[in-house]
Each structure stands twice: as C-alpha cells, then as structure tokens.
Amino acid sequence: MEELFDYLNDMKNYDPASQNRVVAGYCRKWVSKKSEQSDWVENSNHWNWNSRLEDWINAPDSENEIGSIHAVQGIDLNYVGVIIGKDLTINEKGELVADSENYYDNYGKFKKNDPHPLQFDRFVKNIYYVLLTRGIDGIRVYFEDKKVEKAFKKFMGING
Q1: What is the pLDDT of residues 119-155, one digit of tens each?
Q2: Which sign does the torsion angle of CA 50, 52, 53, 54 carry?
Q3: Is 149 within 8 Å of 89 (Cβ atoms)?
C-alpha cells in the first residue's frame, strides 16, 4: 500500500496541479471514526478512511487518507491507487466473487445476511468498477488477496 502513496506522490511532483488519491472497497472496518486506532496499517505506516464524504478531494490531508466509494463517486482523478481488498476473492470454482465476511460498509445496500448473494456479488464488483475507473491519467492497484491478483494478471495478459 505504501507504494500506492509513493506512486501518487511521484505523480504530484511530476504534475503539481494533479488530483491523486488512494481509494479502496469497503474491506476494512472504519475504526478511526470512534477511536484513535488507524483503519489501515502496513509496517510502520498508518492510514485512515476518508475524514469526510462531501468534497473529500479538497479536504486537508485527504492525500494521506484512503477514500471509500462514497467519497469518490462521480469524481475524476488524475492518478489513482486502488486497494482491492479481501471483499473480493476467488472461489473453489476459480470465479471472482464477493466475500460478505470481509465487507464492512454499515451504510451499504447489502448486509451479510442478505438473501440475494448474486446481487451482493454484483454490488461489490460494481464498487470496484467505479474505483478502477476514477484515474484519467494513470492507475496502480494493490491486491490484498494474492489469488485475486494472480487471476487479474492472467485476465490482463500480464506475466509475472
């Protein structure tokens, strides 16, 4: 994840007027809303979910936060880093599916006990579709589930 922020900082140095952010699906609880804990931790790095929903892009310090779908719907960015979390996984048939156990949006349309798993699957995939189409000039992707990363690379024809 740190490499996503490094990439966006490099792009900001290249084009100071660019708007660049890291975004993610709702694959983590929003613990920073009610505590001093960080929502995302990697080694010595700590990040939180977006501090607000409206006009998050222009919020102070938003470049050091991770935006949710609610913060970036309808917003185009120059460069985007997307974290694909464990709310997407590969099932035993080798299919990309949503995992309700790793989906944490309290305000989202679907809950873990929703009786329509195919609708939930489409719902989560659509969130990632939106996130993956925010970057006009460039995108980098970080995968928490290495099986999903492998499937994505295979689909895209990327070796390695």
Answers
A1: 888 989 999 999 999 999 999 999 999 999 999 998 8
A2: negative
A3: no
> 98 is written with which tokens?
């949503």
Residues 6+ apart with CB under 8 A from 137: 11, 18, 78, 79
Average pLDDT, the chain: 90
**CB of 88 within 8 A of CB of 25?**
yes
Residue 85 and residue 24 in contact, taking contact as beta carbons nearer than 8 Å: yes
Domain ranges of the chain: 2-156
Q: What is the pLDDT of residues 63-118, one digit of tens each?
A: 999 999 999 988 999 999 999 999 999 999 999 999 989 998 877 656 656 667 67
DSSP string over 36-59? S--SEEETTEEE-B-S-STTGGGS
- Token pair 């690379």 is found at 153
Distances (CA, A) of 3 to 6, 14, 37, 63, 141: 5, 16, 22, 14, 10
Q: What does the pLDDT look like over 16-42, one tens digit per residue?
A: 999 999 999 999 999 998 889 999 999
Q: Is 34 helix (H, G, I), strand (E, B) or coil?
A: coil
pTM value? 0.91
Q: Count of residues for the chain?
A: 160
